[in-house]
Amino acid sequence: MKNRKLLGTTIILTIAILVIAVYSIVSNIAFKPTVIEQEFPFSITYELDGETKTIRDVYKVKYQHNGGYADTKSRIYVGEIGNMGEGTTVYTLKQEGNERIQLWTNLYPDYMMGDAWYDYFDNESFEPKIYYYDAQEQEFGDEGTLLAHGVKLISYDYPTPIENSFVFSHISYCSGEVVLPTLIITLLALVAIIIFVRKEKELQYKTMDKISIILNFVVSFTLVPFVTIVAMFIDINGGGPELFRQILYFMPSTLVMCIATSVALRRKGYGLKSLIVGLLGPIVFVLYLVVCGVLGL
Hints:
By secondary structure, this protein is α+β, with helices and mostly antiparallel strands. β5 (90-96) and β6 (99-104) form a beta hairpin. The strands form 3 sheets. The protein has a 4-stranded antiparallel beta sheet with strand order 4-3-2-9. A 4-stranded antiparallel beta sheet has the order 5-6-7-8, with no helix packed on it. It has a two-stranded antiparallel sheet with strand order 1-10. The mean pLDDT is 91. The chain is elongated. The longest helix is centred in the C-terminal third of the chain and has 27 residues, at 207-233. It has 9 helices and 10 strands.
């Protein structure tokens, strides 16, 4: 009989946990490119102080790994032109004091590797650009200013980005992106319990039940919003696979799950258990803070 009283609650919470688990896995599937390394020969011809010059070089691109500032599924590429150094794609054509003329190749490794993660040329064409920088670091790319300083772009021969495909790589660790969706899932579970888990007939709430109700409201409107904000913005200086981060991402949903369970237990006449479960969420969070403090995290 007791099992039947909590059957609806068990079904709702089990579904919520399964949905969170599936979402956490599916949303963190990382894909890698099938072509991981490629060379792109190019040439750029320009005129500087009446002399025509041509740059002929090769842009070498390699896929490194998946990762990123906050999104752990981002594909990371590195590009290098000749011996200019990794990530350097700008030529300084002329330097006089604090003034300089630079040629920007506009070569981006992910773009050249056929990765549509970013669209660099949505409002402009894929081509090199020449800029003049004055002593105040103001940038000028108009033809008149460039001609006044004796430089102009004549022609260029640029490679075409490859057509790439992407295959399963691994299941990445979570980031702050999972906080809000998993919280919404548990909030829906709470709403489902409020709607479908009915209070037992002739059940009269006692003092313990009323304390439990107050506790549920306090946690819902103070602790849950606070922890959610902290969990969502913990990646502001970069994410990572550390356990303390992974636990924090799911702390808001854990708090709401405890509230939902507390509501169901109270409605079925388990006042003491309802109070204990209602306290469980805040206790877990406090223990989390204590452990993080002791470990200096």
